[in-house]
Amino acid sequence: MKSGFGTRPRAKLPVKASLLGRRTAAQRQWMPTTTGWSESTYAEKAWEAARHAGMRWAAWGAGVGLVIALIAFAPAAWLARAVDSATNGRVVLADARGTIWSGSAVMVLTGGPDSRDAASLPGRFQWSLGVGGSGIELHALHPCCLNGNLTLAIKPGFGRIQVTLVSPPADWVGHWPGELLGGLGTPWNTLKIGGTVRLSTPGLTLESVQGRWRISGQATLDLQNASSRVSTLDPLGSYRFTITGDPANPGTSQLTLGTVQGSLQLSGTGTWGPGGVRFRGEATATPGDEAALNNLLNIIGRRNGARSVISIG
Predict the structure, then answer these.
(1) 163 and 174 share a domain?
(2) Which end of the chain is least crowded, N or C, by CB within 10 Å?
(3) Is 42 among the domain residues?
């Protein structure tokens, strides 16, 4: 049928098709696009990311646990190596057992590197380490030689370490057989000193700065009832050696040697500082004992008539 205008009427489009056809370019720009991933693909990717994160955390946890275990159960041999290095091989903790935090060892004195002289103390030296104050506290026990349980406060630092004797006993800190000195090498291995060496101090701090030791406070070493295999006199006498830190010069200590009593008379003074030990002294025999002490005086120092001159540094 023809319309009033003489043309066929236009067919009506479906509603959806007409609406889509009427969308502008700007509207079509915001239409969502498909990625080709299904919901299951998204889940698999999320699970994979979570699994890798868990593995990383597990690895970190295992590493931290390993470090803690190494610290907590570090063998006593590690401490022995540290003592050997700090003393240049003159103090050795042999047969070390336990951990660095709690252990025991046989203490040995030696003449240092390349020396064949060594002397060990009886029994086992025992220690325990813990954190205290601003550093580490070392509790030491050696029934043969130490006066009770001693405490040392250790403060490590960059290129230095400080060791302080906490609350030293009023009478003496430790005593050792004189024969132990033979382990230090010349001239002690020749003299074969007998008697007892006793350490006392009102307060003492040792500090190592770049490998050099210095002292604050005072330490007194008494050699009581000394004897020697190169002399027929027994005992030779008793002697006192004192090390005193110099407050005016913290890097230098004053050394003093004197005779308490005996046929062999020893005296001298010196310093211990960055340049090493410098000591000047002399040894003489009391009247009537010259013949018995002649060989000993020849070994102790350089003979100058009746005197034997001691010179170190």
Answers:
(1) no
(2) N
(3) no
* Rounded-to-integer distance, Cα 75 and Cα 80, Å: 9
Residue 145 confidence (pLDDT): 94
Does 204 reside within a domain?
Answer: yes
- Above 90 in pLDDT, residue 36? no
Closest of 152, 148, 213 to residue 174, by C-alpha: 148
194 and 309 fall within a common domain: yes
Tell me if 170 sits within 8 A of 198, measured CB to CB.
Answer: no
Q: Which of 78, 82, 84, 85 is nearest to 99 (CA)?
A: 78
Please name the residue that has the structure tokens 């002490």: 293
Same domain, 80 and 201: no
Q: Which amino acid, 29?
A: Q
CA distance 307 to 117: 29
Tell me which of 183 and 12 has the higher pLDDT: 183
Single-letter residue type at 86: A
Q: Is the pLDDT of residue 232 over 50?
A: yes
Domain span at residue 90 reads 75-167
How would DSSP label each residue in 161-200?
EEEEEES--SS-SEEEEGGGGGGG-TTHHHH--EEEEEEE
Q: How far apart (Å, rounded) are the C-alpha atoms in residues 220 and 126?
A: 24
pLDDT at 179 over 50: yes
CA nearest neighbour of 100 among 144, 63, 136:
136
Q: Which of 167, 198, 222 is the last residue of a domain?
A: 167
Query: Could you tell me how far CA 6 lies from the centroid of its own chain?
Result: 113
Distance of alpha carbon 75 from alpha carbon 156, whole angstroms = 20
Distance CA 131, CA 47 (A): 44
Q: Which residues contact 43 (CB under 8 A, 6 or more apart)?
A: none
Please give the structure tokens belonging to residue 73. Answer: 């159960």
Relative to beta strand 307-312, strand 174-177 is unpaired
Domain count of the fold of the chain: 2
